[in-house]
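Annotated sample (chain length 357).
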Amino acid sequence: MLGLIGPRGVGKTTLIIQYTKNNLDLKETLYVTAEDFYFSDNTILDLADLFVKQGGKYLFIDEIQKYKDWSKELKLLYDYYPGLKVVFSGSSVLDIKKGVTDLSRRAVMYNLQGLSFREYLHLFHNIKLETFTLKNIIEHQIDIPGLEHPLRHFKNYLKQGYYPFALEDDFEWRLRQIVNQTLESDIPLYAEMNVSTGRKLKQLMAIISKSTPFKPNFSSIATMLSASRNNIADYCMYIEEAGMVAQLRNSKGDIRSLGKVSNIYLENTNLVYNLAEDTPNIGNIREAFFFNQTKLNYTVCASPIADFLIGEITFEVGGKNKKQKQIKELENGYIVKDDIEIGFGNTVPLWHLGMLY
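Output written by the structure step:
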């Protein structure tokens, strides 16, 4: 049993359908969505029993969070039908994570992130490149053949390259719909919020999108949103778990739980351009890209001296004229610059961080 989770719009359903068509015998394969009317009168176990008796081997269940008590039923499915291979996917990361504990030792979970800059080049421009480690990048051990004018592609990626539907004509409208559905439906349903609270989440997202970056002051946020200060931390956690923002914590304590939130970024730069409209802050965009591309494979913390800390390595992110002042005394300090094509010394091109996955 496999679970595929991630924010709305990153391509989970497309990935599943393409895989079934290209790799499996369709006579032995069934794809269903858990919000289908069939499940108003029938259970997943009913469906699986009928499917297995007709020779079914591969069952794919999409939007699993729409099915009540889905984790308990998948647990029974795993136990009752050992020969059936099951893949389930879900967009509401909050509810999925809550239910995963019931499937411990049964399901292997995969979290699907949006496209890296490298994947964007492959998917939309047929430019196939290798992945590189952070060590490769800071030591300039990175060979990128066949890529001309990387900065032109990079600028396009920042605006609309993170989501697989990026080249469709209605991209901006669809992305706005994803944001609205997540904030007005998914999170309120999970957290039992009312409609007005869902609107406060949208206001909070708008504030973050225009910041440089956003340094949380829960008291001032509560005043702006006309909300209780005690609820703001929960609001930020909800929209982070739903894949809309990313919270950068300091390195003190346990980074996953006890580290104090230093900055909050929108989860990816496409969201910044979409929500900030005519006022995106370029510093916010650069730092959001760095954080988004590195946090998948590395633990990223706020640096007390510069912008980011990964292990013992400090990074300061800026434009091509960024100076060495903040990191000049550091042995493992690096300047990450936008608008440059190649790196030198302790200076790394920002777009190279898009080659990590």
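Annotation: The longest helix spans residues 171-191.
Annotation: The chain has two domains: 2-111, 117-355.
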